């Protein structure tokens, strides 16, 4: 029997884990990667005098797929510091207190935002289960689910007696969490996050902003790559894919092309427009590519003079919505992580811009360095992590989960569980899509 061959497009977590599955099944493969490195939107790089996560950062033992990799490769985790002083705004007035006091003020409005998370997501890794006729949900529940997809994450706070302080805190929280404008993001994504975290705000915080890898993300993606025997071709951008029932032809930026029995594309939706598909993508998938996600923001690392253990929240229109101390360096500096909703509002290499950010909470502190990567402007990503617009939870990502040809998709953007924000979903789809391809090729 002729041995089957698969081309994997992208050497991020999804592509690497898909390749490992193919290798285990005895199927020939090779990976093509447009960048000059592996990792995709996970990128551990030496900046500001230490290794920093330029992309994905946080992990948790409740994230099943990433924790399996942490166990497999013997990686250790470390907790981010509990801050001494938190700063937040209420109707334009700067307030301060402990992190616990700030969290307590978030509890009541977040309970409203997470409302119906149990009913909507009885099995969090099956996000559209309540719409499945076999599940037997009431029409009332289905209608409520669909309506929630059309609502922004902060809309729930417009009805009720929520204070401006509560609204401002939630605005800052979700501007960072959605890495975009929260009023444009589907409320269902926040509710699914709650379901993935046992419906507890404290666990949402733990899973998305508390524990990171001692050796960085490269401690995992680097080890996966070492386990692979297939070729990884860097600096190899794909421009076109022609796919049929039993084969696919991939064309590269240098004009060359090659044919395989199947192709697994792990390119995020923000960059899929760079590839011409023949035949074209299904209508629902193409609409998603044209709309893109609600992922317009950025992540930055800001280095300040002295050791300062702080946490800052600021609502729109602040450039940075959340800032927190992460590392206390031997040269008497502190490195803080920062998130904002609009990548066009900051120069990620400008100390002057970073100083303005810090000034909104602590004008007495001096910024001595800043770094980051503009993932939205990056032609090979076109976005930060995947956050869904209103309506895209029920009409968007899932179009990429089924295939009727030799073309298949994997990546955090299409995950059933953690879609973006952490790497668990990328690993999930790398495994599941590869298994689908393996089963199809085996007949």
UniProtKB/TrEMBL annotation:
Domain Amine oxidase stretches: 13-438
Domain of life: Bacteria
Annotated organism of origin: Corynebacterium aurimucosum
Protein known as: FAD-dependent oxidoreductase
Residues involved in substrate binding: 339
GO MF: oxidoreductase activity
InterPro entries the record matches: Amino_oxidase, FAD/NAD-bd_sf, Flavin_amine_oxidase, Flavin_MAO
Keyword Oxidoreductase: yes
Record-stated family: Belongs to the flavin monoamine oxidase family.
Cofactor: FAD
Keywords: Oxidoreductase
UniProt KW Cell division keyword: no
Amino-acid positions noted as binding FAD in the UniProt annotation, renumbered to this chain: 33-34, 238
One Pfam family recorded for the sequence: Amino_oxidase
């Amino acid at each position: 029997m002729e041995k089957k061959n698969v081309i994997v497009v992208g050497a991020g977590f999804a592509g690497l884990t898909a390749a490992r599955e193919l290798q285990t099944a005895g199927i020939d493969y090779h990976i093509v990667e447009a960048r000059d490195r592996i990792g995709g939107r996970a990128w551990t790089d030496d900046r500001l005098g230490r290794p920093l996560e330029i992309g994905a950062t946080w992990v948790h033992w409740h994230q099943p797929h990433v924790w399996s990799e942490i166990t497999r490769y013997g990686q250790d985790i470390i907790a981010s510091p509990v801050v001494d002083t938190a700063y937040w705004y209420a109707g334009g007035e700067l307030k301060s207190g402990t992190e616990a006091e700030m969290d307590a003020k978030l509890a009541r409005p977040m309970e409203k935002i997470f409302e119906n998370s149990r009913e909507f997501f009885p099995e969090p890794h099956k996000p559209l289960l309540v719409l499945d006729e076999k599940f037997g949900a009431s029409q009332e529940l289905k209608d409520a689910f669909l309506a929630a997809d059309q609502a922004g994450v902060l809309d729930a706070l417009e009805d009720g007696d929520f204070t401006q302080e509560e609204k401002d805190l939630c605005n800052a929280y979700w501007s960072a969490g959605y890495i975009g404008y929260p009023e444009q993001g589907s409320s269902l994504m926040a509710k699914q996050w709650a379901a993935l975290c046992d419906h507890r705000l404290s666990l949402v915080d733990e899973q998305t902003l508390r524990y990171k890898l001692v050796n960085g993300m490269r401690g995992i993606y680097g080890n996966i790559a070492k386990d692979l025997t297939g070729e990884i071709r860097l600096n190899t951008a794909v421009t076109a894919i022609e796919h049929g029932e039993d084969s696919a032809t991939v064309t590269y930026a240098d004009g060359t092309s090659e044919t395989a029995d199947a192709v697994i594309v792990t390119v995020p939706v923000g960059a899929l427009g760079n590839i011409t598909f023949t035949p074209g993508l299904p209508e629902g998938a193409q609409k998603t590519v044209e709309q893109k996600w609600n992922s317009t923001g950025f992540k930055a690392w800001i280095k300040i003079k002295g050791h300062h253990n702080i946490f800052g929240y600021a609502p729109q229109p602040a450039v940075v919505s959340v800032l927190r101390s992460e590392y206390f360096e031997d040269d008497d500096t502190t490195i803080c992580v920062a998130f904002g909703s609009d990548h066009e509002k900051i120069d990620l290499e400008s100390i002057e811009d970073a100083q303005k950010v810090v000034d909104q909470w602590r004008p007495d502190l001096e910024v001595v360095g800043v770094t980051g990567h503009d993932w939205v402007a990056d032609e090979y990503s076109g976005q930060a992590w995947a956050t869904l617009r209103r309506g895209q939870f029920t009409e968007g990502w899932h179009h990429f989960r089924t295939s009727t040809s030799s073309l298949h998709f994997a990546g955090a953007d299409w995950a059933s569980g953690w879609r973006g924000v952490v790497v668990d979903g990328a690993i999930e789809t790398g495994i599941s899509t590869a298994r689908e391809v393996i089963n199809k090729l085996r007949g």
